Description:
Blueprint: H1 2-21, H2 26-44, H3 48-71, H4 76-81, H5 93-100
Amino acid sequence: MIETIGIIATILAVAGVWLNNRQRIACFKLWIVSNALSLIIHVATGIWTLAIRDAIFVVLAVQGYKMWKNKKKTTNWEIMSAATYPLGRPIPPPMVDRLKG
């Protein structure tokens, strides 16, 4: 049973990376599930250092999902206009376009 859960967790984690490479928010949902499954495995087998790591990964995936979801509510201009010079002045629009690459 633990081996089956491990296989499922691995498949979900790889699928999450694949979705992340395609900039899809669903990657975080897969990571939450895969890390939770890994957490269950490591707690059940008494591997506490990996269980702690998995718990941290679950928290980070939830945080990433929330941040990405909030980021989608803003426009690219709002995100880019938040950039500033070292002196705290906003970057004018032509400079922002050059920074986009």
